[in-house]
Specification:
With about 280 residues, the protein is mostly beta strands. It folds into two domains: about 140 residues, Glucose Permease (Domain IIA); about 70 residues, SH3 type barrels. The chain is built from one helix and 21 strands. The longest helix has 27 residues.
């Protein structure tokens, strides 16, 4: 019996040491192996917007149960808060509603102008943080009621999954984000970087005709540096597409950009002929 007690004691010491060593290694390696940092969220606009309505009911409970909302008055582009997926979940004559999923969280952008969202109802697409999703609807001066909701003045109705979320350094509670405040975002088209492309430069999916001398951009937006031009009348191989900053060209205004087979540089859809206003390649 004494021998058994001694073995038991020794086993506990050895096993205890093993557990302690394992915990020490976890601490040295940065904590629990399964722990993951939450995505960094940015406010869905560039510059400063004003809060026109403080904490209130978010609506769309079937998508975000218990969702809460704030309203922000402006007419500029609405951007993706983080990298994830977007989906048009409602469309009426005046507006579209877009569901944004970033990590395990969901957000809703409501009262976007139908023409500003380049996707049909029920369509899903990938977005990078800073991608342009749409613009607030200015129909009837922003005063309208439709199947997707009621708007009292041009604004973005932003639905969050819960209070207390920290976005761009602002803690979203009733007392911290109030009507009349101005919130400044660190977001912009193209943040944090040009989308990663998995296809090699030779993986041309479509060949388009360049209609006018067009800048070759290092990223999907006019805020990216120009690196030469695509000559008018030439052909260019398109690898993949991404929605980015708006640009004007031969066919007017477009937020659709293609990565090309010319050193991976980008061309705006408004400057090329593809036979359609819709993407003709896979998403980047």
């Amino acid at each position: 019996m004494q021998r058994s007690r001694s073995f038991s004691t020794m086993a506990r010491l050895v096993l205890g040491g093993t557990v302690a060593l394992g915990l020490s290694l976890c601490a040295m390696l940065g904590g629990t192996p399964s722990a993951q940092a939450a995505p960094t969220l940015r406010l869905p606009w560039q510059g400063t917007w004003r809060v026109t309505n403080g904490l209130h009911n978010g609506g769309y409970a079937s998508y975000i149960p218990g969702g809460v909302a704030w309203d922000f008055g402006d007419t500029r582009d609405v951007l993706a808060m983080g990298t994830g997926t977007a989906k048009v979940i409602c469309t009426d004559y005046y507006q579209k509603a877009v569901l944004l999923t970033v990590g395990s969280d969901r957000f809703i952008y409501l009262h976007l102008a139908p023409s500003s969202v380049a996707h049909a109802n029920g369509t899903s697409w990938n977005v990078a943080q800073g991608d342009i999703v749409g613009r607030p609807s200015q129909a009837n001066g922003g005063y309208f009621t439709g199947a997707c909701g009621t708007s009292q003045g041009t604004h973005l109705h932003l639905v969050l999954p819960r209070t207390g979320m920290i976005i761009d350094g602002y803690t979203f509670t009733a007392s911290s984000v109030r009507k009349g405040m101005s919130l400044t975002s660190s977001n912009r088209p193209g943040v944090p970087s040009t989308p990663t492309v998995t296809q090699p430069p030779s993986a041309v999916k479509f060949t388009a005709k360049v209609m006018v001398n067009a800048n070759r951009r290092t990223g999907p937006g006019t805020n990216y540096a120009a690196n030469g031009v695509f000559p008018a009348g030439s052909s260019v191989g398109l690898i993949c597409y991404v929605w980015g900053g708006g640009g004007s060209g031969y066919y007017g205004y477009s937020t659709l950009w293609y990565r090309t087979n010319q050193s991976g540089l980008y061309v705006n859809d408004a400057n090329i002929y593809t036979g359609t206003n819709n993407p003709v390649t896979p998403h980047c």
